[in-house]
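Reopening closed ticket. The problem is back. First fold of the pair:
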Amino acid sequence: MFTLVSLLCAPLLENALQEVKVVDETGAANSTELLIQAAFDINPDALTVVFQPAGDTPNLNAQAKINATLASIRSLPEVASIVTPAERPEYISSNGQTQYSVINLKSTSAEAIDQIEQIIDRDKVSASQNAEPTLKIYLTGKPAIDRAVQNYQQLYADPAQIPLPKVAAAFNQLTHRATTLVIVKSKTAQQSDATRNLVRDFRSANLEDLKIQVAGQTASELDVVAAIERRFPLVLGLIMVATFFAASCSVLRSVWP
């Protein structure tokens, strides 16, 4: 995922973010993209829908829900076919919990991917409203990531103006991790107030399942300022003690014969 996101996003986010890097802290063994490319032999350029259990409790109705979601996706006019584990048994993980299906589109359009995302979101909402054990369902592969990049391009050119909920939604589309480290570098002038505010906003943001680290010159400068502010009371105290000691010595010299 790190390589794929870096290669795809860095040049395409020209008008918004200079660079986006995603690091999976759980390790490469748990990287869905690596599983897709290696164990499941799925082309990373393919549009792939992934179904994973949402928790430790087995969902006895999971397959019925998966079939219903796939049926809804298959009914879309832009969908040519879907290759499921019924045709490719290797698309099921060794523990039988995770499975993948490759969606073949008649034309890779943003509208088609948006329609698929809407079906997935609808099924998630329905499951949560019925208090059912939910499945983690999401799209991956180059078409899905390209669409996430397009979402960025439709936002403001100045990254300081990007609404944080939009950023969170786009990162969630790219990562789908329980814990993810996201490094964002602003394209605006390093010394601008907009960039400083962007750094502060990202650091103070409470984004579910995401830990955000902002790197770069401005972030480092703010770290130095914060360190000085934290140490200022101690430094001020030392200065006052030193001043008092110097003044006391001066007084003693003047009165001591």
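Second fold of the pair, where the issue appears:
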Amino acid sequence: MKSVSHLQASQLLHNKFIVVLGDSIQRAVYKDLVLLVQKEKYLSLRQLRSKGEMSFEQDCLVEGGCLGQMHNGTEYKEVRQFQSAHHLVRFYFVTCIYSHYMKSILEDFRHGLKPDLVFVNSCVWDISRYSCSWVDDYKENLRKFFDELREALPEETLVVWNLTMPLGERIKGGFLVPEIEHKAPQLRYDVIEANFYSGTLADAYGMDVLDLHFQFRFSLHHRMKDGVHWNAVAHRKITSLLLQHAAEAWGVILPCPVTVYGERKSGVTHTCRKIFCTSRIKCEVGTSPPAGGPLRPSMVIFDWLLSRCFSSAFSASSWSISACRASIVSSNSLEKSNGEGQMRRKIWRGKFHCLLILLFFLLQQGKVLIQFGLNLLHTFISIFGGGVQLLLQEAEADMGLTQLLTLR
């Protein structure tokens, strides 16, 4: 999956109020979103690791952080906000999905500006820092939170509950104080169980659920050494998933993700060439692709080779190049799928179909060549065989004449 560009993000979130609720991973989600609506750049390692700073990319620290006491306790607070002429993004650091502090946040929603989009997750702190038997407490807190959130927000607000990402076997982090280090080996399994409870309950309350645990199960190389946090590439993918989910919910067709040819230096992508799709969102640079989305460069070349092979042999056949190309286009289209794995399978399935067609074409051409050779051999025998038979008849006649003269 390609990343959402700065232009796409800024236009999609134009005049929108976005709220991000959660832990340090959600803080990084907020930071990447703030960065993306301003420029085409990735988060640096220092930006990912820092917390509670006074300012990040033109945002401001509203409450907590370095304004108060910096610590790793459950009472730590951090409220950040980025505001521009057409964007408003706010972040609340929470360590429990339902608490007195969460009630105050919901009161802000009731009596203040209503958010258009809410990204929320709270899991790791809930299941590790408050109780050893966390299951019942976590379920009950989720119900209370979803009940009050539904009352505090209007129906137009899009709430996305994103599931917790995979943890490593050996983990360390701010939440993992020495008192609970013995829970570390079991915590990654508890996260899977907690994701099941929270995802099922959020879906029952009619909220959108984004399974980041599933999305990143094969992207563990993007996880940091602490086994908890993730690098800038992973967070850009999270942002892209969230924004594409929001766009689909709002009925907005985003341009196809930009295919970039070039290199990235110091977090900034220096592009040599970009390919866009048509969209309801107007872009400064763009071209209209064929129906079904643009073909990748390799698939375009593959399609051209197939067209050259099949243009004369299968023009009236059901195995036409149009059917073959439709298979390629459908496998590369940006339709809704259940993840990159299925999209890869679709692409390779399309390639496999095309290879079968190519093999069938070669077999057909081989049959034609064999038939041509047989016809040529038959013609050769027909032409030269008659001449040989005539010579034999003349030789037999000469031999008969010789024997007759000898007898006389």
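Update: turned out to be a display glitch only; the data is intact. DSSP finds twelve helices and nine strands in the chain. The longest strand covers residues 268-275. Please close again.
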